[in-house]
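Pair request: fold both.
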Amino acid sequence: MNTGAIASRYASAFFEIVSESSDIENIYTSAKKLSNILLKWPVLRRVLSDRQTDLHDKINLLLRFVPSGVPDQIIQLLELLIRKNRSEQIIPVLLMFRKKYLSSRNILDVEIEFAHMPEDNILNELKRKIETTLKSSCEFEIVENPELIAGYILLVNGRIFDTSIKGQLRTVKRQLLDVKFENR
């Protein structure tokens, strides 16, 4: 079975169960924090995906990384995925749950990657302009990436708008390579 379909089924079921909860915002915030933690720890992901590691050891290890105050529903989801040998689905399930939550609230998922962090007043003005242009509430993830040299990359619900110097150099390189191969 397609792993995306598996994660989607778990995320949909989890969303349906918790969507009526009065604690849905806390569940969402905790799922977001936990997915960010797991994305930053590839060694943890490898251990969780290792079929040789005992299920109880996986659960205990994962619970050490879970921030305090995480709702029981998240803990139960994690334990279920591990017991069903679906550890590799934890991040996709959490990310798909996040997407379902935002969609249900008509909130766009926006990531802005800057070469250098702008001042707060500039950042706030940019956020305001993005929400006005998109005519929607947005949840912003702000990332600093000096490799961009200058400029920024805007990612809105999976669509990329790249104004960075690195992106422009990549475009020029691609055009030069196209010309080179056309002249052969």
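--- second member of the pair ---
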Amino acid sequence: MSNLSPLKKCISKHQLKTYFFGEPGLPVYKSMTKTKGYLELRKFVIHKLTNHLSPDLTYHGVHHVKDVVNVCNRYIKRLKIKGREAELLLTGALIHDIGFLYTYRDHEEKGVKIACELLPQYAFDKDEIDLISGLIIATKVPQLPKTELEKILCDADLDYLGRNDFDPISESLFQELQNVNLLHDRLTWDKIQIKFLEGHYYHTNYAKKYRQPNKSARLEEIKQRVNEQETPT
């Protein structure tokens, strides 16, 4: 399991801050209802990600965040998750990659620090922030979720691995890794994909049944492609 030390740095009381990332922030909503708090947070975060994420992030862009939120919404409906629990899951989905605003490596730990500063402004209490911080950290690869909500978010984060749009989304990640100078040739990329897909496991019953078969098929296709590239003609 990844180091959870950033969770310990969350504020212990409602120290409602009036700044975000060192910039002037939105006003503190002391009388805000929980639901309104989430809706206002969602509006703010989507705006922030849309306008401030690097264009180099062709995979980890705001479109990915929206996709994960949408998948979580389907889990909420499917599993009949109610009220505040559903809202906390959606909040985790909304900000699970917010650390990319500042760093590529260890962005989950940065995301926890941001959550600890940002969420009190939107009527989230310490226990809720700790839960959301756990959701963020759980998405760090290799994913090792412990709670049911963490399992759902992890599977939503990598839902595309077992979907029909695997190829274009995979291509967007390959492009991103080239953009940030972590990878350049396609054969190496395919080998990385093989290792990742072989080591990845879905956690929810739904994903095991409806995503794992397609994921396994994609793995075999990539293996075949690599074998063809490495076989002498």
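Observation on the second member. Residues 108 and 140 are 7 Å apart (CA to CA).
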